[in-house]
Protein 1
Amino acid sequence: MRSVLNAVTVLEAVAEHQPVGVSELARLVELPKTTVQRCLETLEKAGWTRHSSDPPVRWSITARVWAVAGSTSEYATLREAALPALHRIRDTLDETVHLTALDGLDAIIIERVDSRQMVRTYTALGTATPLHGPAAGKAILAHLPDVHVAATIEAGLARFTDATLSDVDALEEELRRIREQGYAVNRGEWRRDIFGVGVPILGSDDRPVGSISISMPAFRFRDEDLPRYSGLLMESAQEVAKSLP
């Protein structure tokens, strides 16, 4: 039983920190390096992880992990409904597009359509992101019940960059603004050099079932493009919401 628990712990750490080396993993999960290495090799044989071919060796999860996670009925339905819109947004704006769903006090990326530009953002499928950082998470958080917002605040507003909204009053004001304008903007609040725009996908009860967002390198973001970004995203989110059962 202990070996199974260790393997699951290592797999979760790889998913959150990939690509990641054995030494860092051992520190993160507080297990001996030899134990972590055995877990990684076992997971690799099972098809759950893979390692880079060039040194230094870094480990990542495989598509098999996401195939299992994405097969849950709730996520699968949302992904199927949203995929055409995600591709249309990417083809129109040529920025990376994410589909995100609520997972407890995090937002998890359940689908991604990559920009075709040479310089683009990258966040792995299955990555759990904070609700108070990226635009995708803030778009969801702004439309959650007060009790969920309070739980997010109580859990701690971790500061990821100098721009992170770690002050409660500032976050609440931001959530009010998002509800009024219909979209969220991330100006380097989770990762310093990544900006983004996100909108909620609202269900029939006006609660968020997920969000659609675009992300881009900070140097490519311009305020004058916000109406174009937000307009296309809001229109797409409404279409996805209408197609959900």
Note: The chain has a mean pLDDT of 90.
Protein 2
Amino acid sequence: MIDLDLEGPGLHVIFGISDGDIRATINDVLQGSIPIRDAVLDLTPRLGIESGCLLFCPAGHRLEEILKMVETGFNLSRFKAVLYNLATEYQLDYLLIDSHPGIEKDTILSMAVCDVVVLLSRVDHQDMFGSGVMNEVASQLRKPVVLILNMIPSSVGEKESKMIGEKIASLFNLQVLTALPFNSDVFENLSRGVFVLEHQKDPLTRKFTAMAENMIAIIEQSREVPETSDNGPTRQAVG
């Protein structure tokens, strides 16, 4: 997983990563000649993952790092090479890229190299409008798009949530992966940890698990038409 929200990185907080744990960030890799392996953190033992592994590339969260990236940015060829090296060196099954919300250069570059674009949206007008714009951009890039509806009000039942999802899917001509209800436990968690690992029996965790399984199926379908890059076949990436 790569934290590519370069203007407001925060995944390191959820994973409990301190500055002392970080040797290099994805900023350093994209803007210099630092190898990607220097920015990779193996979170498998930290999170107690018993099956598979989770590797994480943090983004620079200091103000000077953010301002430098905003000012200079990074180029597409370097970005593609970094992703290819990361995927091949660690033999990744899936590569998840968490990008900045909205139309930003890094977001569009992420969408350009991904096999599947995943949009996360609430059901208010502002979020829906933004999701519509992002869906249009993804369509121009010829990328399959799935939408996750988030923070559905508790007053909305599961049947009604499904109907809302079907209407949005028809409106935007995309697939709605799931509708996640608002959960006060997640809100109170305040990004202090990985919810699904700390609340494994929670109904929302089961919903997340089902969502992940459906997402894997969609990614596997995208492999039927593999894309190639200047560096050879790409691994699967999700934005």
Note: The CA atoms of residues 153 and 182 lie 6 Å apart.
